[in-house]
Design brief:
Chain A: Pfam families: BPD_transp_2 (PF02653). Chain A: Keywords: Cell inner membrane, Cell membrane, Membrane, Transmembrane, Transmembrane helix, Transport. Chain A: InterPro entries: ABC_transp_permease. The complex is a heterodimer. By secondary structure, chain A is an all-alpha fold. Chain A starts with a helix and ends in a 9-residue tail after the last helix. The model of chain A has no long low-confidence stretch (mean pLDDT 87). Chain B is α/β, with parallel strands linked by helices. In chain B, strands 3-2-4-5-6-13 form a six-stranded parallel sheet, with helices on both faces. In chain B, strands 8-7-9-10-11-14 form a six-stranded mixed sheet, sandwiched between helices.
């Protein structure tokens, strides 16, 4: 109950947005219409969940957007439309996400490079590598099986919604485990956590690994949803961070719940959908995101002294 | 914020009757007025250029049959090249704006293959500006100092590159292609007919295929880029004169996921759409998939000559058209450079044919052995190394 209260504002905003969408587009109230919205939001929600782990531990992950692009471009090049290659490539993509997260984490904690710099560097390295490899024009094609996860349904429910349920549940369980408590302790007060026996470095590395894996899953869903593109991940890192902040998670770490972070992603996606339904496009999305990020952080700072310890 | 957003939206209401009526009213109005569906006319719109380009589509080009990259539409004034005549072997230089999209990738490969055809080109120096004006300005200065016999430029942006090209003209014969510059000092400027013809080809197709009052969604990549602005401004003129209801004009950033989301939203909001116009076909497949995923028939749609779209068109038996901005234009500057260095005449403004792909000619351009993002009008099939060099099998 207390968890719900602390994350209350974001659910209220989300509810208002959903009502506004339903007014503009009655089809939204039908199961198919609503599921289509959840399906479209799924990659961002998963990314936001991953980003939450890093942010609550007191760090940032700016590399997830370009990691998503890498996933899609690499998948297309390796699969070349061959169904048989789908599963090995999927495994490879998850391993790649894990590896990038591991490198981010080890550099940040081991070499004491601020994560802002580590992951910014990783973002540039990855987007540079994609550009070098493709020259801006991705080659190859994704297989039908690969695209199934982002595009097709299992019965009445889209695959991406099911995957989102699994990932969301896993994220909640992870935050309720000892690891989650250590993670929040690390983000809240690194020294206190270390003195009470938390292996701070190892905990943060794991947070980056979770974020890398989330980016891999999001990449698989996005590639499936829309096909091959060299721009697929552009700006996603900022959307994910905006979503997490919107969910009331405090930048700097230690406070906020993963459920609220995911709700933040839904809210952002709902906002984009609403803007789109009213024929307001493109450039305004960035402006809106900017306003949100500033307003949410300002609002968080104002209420900070009243906040209780973070909840899952 | 949201309230303001709601008010700012001047899109026609969802009720079909009123918006159809407003479109019908605007159909009788002069071309220059704005209809509620298509918004203000672009400040890039020039009526004379629009008329000229639409006229060029019907003209028969001069030049060898089957080699559109050597043809010229209404060549008019010829550049005198006697003063550039010199003996080979030659050193050609090329300042490229970028190779950052599939269209430029295909073009760049085609140009390299054209260079390889000519033994008299002893050296070919190319610098890639990576989409940056400042880099291209220094690239051009560097190439001019390298003793090139001729300099080919594909400018990144028009206004910013003009002084750099003007500076190079007195030192070396300059050939500009693809996008233009604001000076006539280059020996020749080569490109296909242009954006107005491209935009009108797509819009006229929809006017023909979609019944009166039908709902059309227009998708654009970005605002403010001249070649794209002219495409849309031509389409706007055509739509304003028609009885179609343009229910939205949206920017996609060329992003497939965003395109798919936008189209899905419009399908949900309007119940269905009767046509989709695009200023470039790179995301056409995503738009088609939005209809497939919504369980709706794909309406009349405008794409481009990319293989993935042509494939989709063929498989789905779509009602479609593909205006093109042919990549074979990358062959022409090399041919022009050699003509100039041999003292042969070239057109001052060299306009290449700009065909559109229709359902009749679809089979000619569909090449299942080529990669999904290959552009069919590369004119590269007869070049050495085809298809492997272009990623084909």
């Amino acid at each position: 109950m207390r968890a719900l209260r602390s994350a209350g504002p974001i659910f209220l905003v989300l509810a208002v947005l959903l009502v506004l969408i339903a007014v503009a587009n009655p089809f939204f109230l039908e199961p198919a219409g609503f599921l289509a919205f959840v399906k479209r939001a799924a990659p961002l929600v998963i990314l936001a969940a991953g980003q939450y782990f890093v942010i609550v531990s007191g760090e940032f992950d700016l590399s997830v957007g370009s990691l998503v692009t890498v996933q899609v471009v690499v998948a297309a090049r390796l699969i070349e439309g061959d169904e048989a290659a789908t599963w090995p490539v999927l495994a490879l993509l998850l391993a790649l996400g894990l590896l990038v997260g591991l490198v981010n984490g080890v550099i940040t904690t081991g070499l004491r490079v601020p994560s802002f710099i580590t992951t910014l560097g990783m973002m540039l390295v990855l987007s540079g590598a994609v550009f070098l490899w493709t020259g801006g024009a991705p080659r190859g094609a994704l297989s039908e099986t690969f695209r199934m996860f982002g595009r097709k349904d299992l019965g009445p429910v889209p695959w991406s919604v099911l995957i989102l349920l699994v990932v969301g549940t896993a994220a909640i369980l992870l935050m309720r485990s000892d690891f989650g408590k250590r993670l929040i302790a690390t983000g809240d007060n690194e020294r206190a956590a270390a003195l009470s026996g938390v292996r701070v470095g190892r905990t943060r590395v794991l947070a980056f690994v979770v974020s890398g894996l989330a980016a891999a899953v999001a990449g698989i869903l996005l590639g499936g949803f829309a096909g091959v593109s060299a721009q697929v991940g552009q700006g996603l890192e900022f959307q994910a961070i905006t979503a997490v902040v919107l969910g009331g998670v405090v930048l700097g770490g230690g406070r906020g719940s993963v459920v609220a972070a995911m709700a933040g992603a839904f809210t952002l996606e709902a906002l984009f959908t609403l803007l789109n339904l009213h024929g307001i496009s493109g450039a305004l999305e960035y402006a809106v995101q900017g306003v949100i990020i500033i307003a949410a952080v300002a609002a968080g700072a104002v209420r900070l002294p009243l906040r209780r310890a973070a909840r899952v | 914020m949201l309230l303001a957003a709601g008010c700012a939206s001047d899109k026609p209401a969802a009720t079909g009757a009123t918006s159809a009526a407003s479109t019908a009213a605007s159909a009788s109005a002069p071309v220059a007025t704005t209809s509620s569906g298509t918004g203000e006319q672009s400040k890039f719109f020039v009526q004379a250029d629009f008329d000229a380009q639409l006229g060029m589509r019907a003209q028969t080009p001069e030049g060898p049959e089957g080699k559109p990259w050597e043809q010229a539409i209404a060549p008019g004034e010829k550049a005198d090249t006697a003063k550039y005549k010199k003996d080979g072997p030659y050193h050609l230089c090329f300042s490229n704006a970028a190779v950052n999209n599939p269209w430029r990738q295909v073009g760049w490969k085609t140009m390299q293959a054209e260079v390889a055809l000519h033994k008299e080109i002893a050296k070919f120096t190319a610098l890639d500006a990576e989409g940056k004006d400042d880099k291209q300005i220094s690239d051009i200065a560097e190439l001019v100092g390298k003793g090139c016999d001729a300099l080919i430029v594909s400018p990144n942006t028009t206004a910013t590159l003009t002084p750099a090209v003007t500076g190079a003209c007195p030192k070396v014969p300059v050939i500009v292609f693809d996008r233009g510059v604001d000076t006539d000092c280059p020996v020749t400027f080569i490109n296909p007919i242009g954006g107005y013809a491209f935009g009108a080809d797509g819009a006229e197709f929809l006017v023909e295929k979609v019944p009166a009052g039908g709902k059309v969604l227009a998708l654009r990549i970005l605002p403010g880029v001249d070649v794209l602005e002219t495409r849309w401004s031509a389409a706007k003129v055509v739509f304003d004169k028609s009885r179609l209801d343009v229910v939205g004009v949206e920017f996609t950033d060329g992003d497939a996921a965003k395109t798919k989301s936008i189209v899905s939203d419009y399908i949900q909001r309007n119940g269905k759409l009767d046509g989709v116009w695009m200023d470039a076909g790179a995301t056409a497949v995503a738009a088609v998939e939005a209809f497939e995923d919504a369980g709706q028939p794909v309406p009349a749609i405008v794409g481009e000559d990319q293989q993935d779209f042509l494939q989709k068109w063929k498989e789905g038996g779509l009602t479609a058209v593909a205006p093109t901005y042919p990549t074979y234009q990358w062959r022409t500057p090399v041919i022009a450079a050699l003509k100039i260095l041999k003292g042969e005449e070239v057109p001052k403004t060299w306009k290449l044919p700009q065909p559109k792909i229709t359902s009749e000619s679809l089979d000619t351009y569909l090449q299942p052995n080529m990669p999904p993002l290959h552009y069919a009008l590369c004119g590269c099939e007869d070049l050495p190394g085809f298809p492997a060099k272009w990623g084909g099998k």
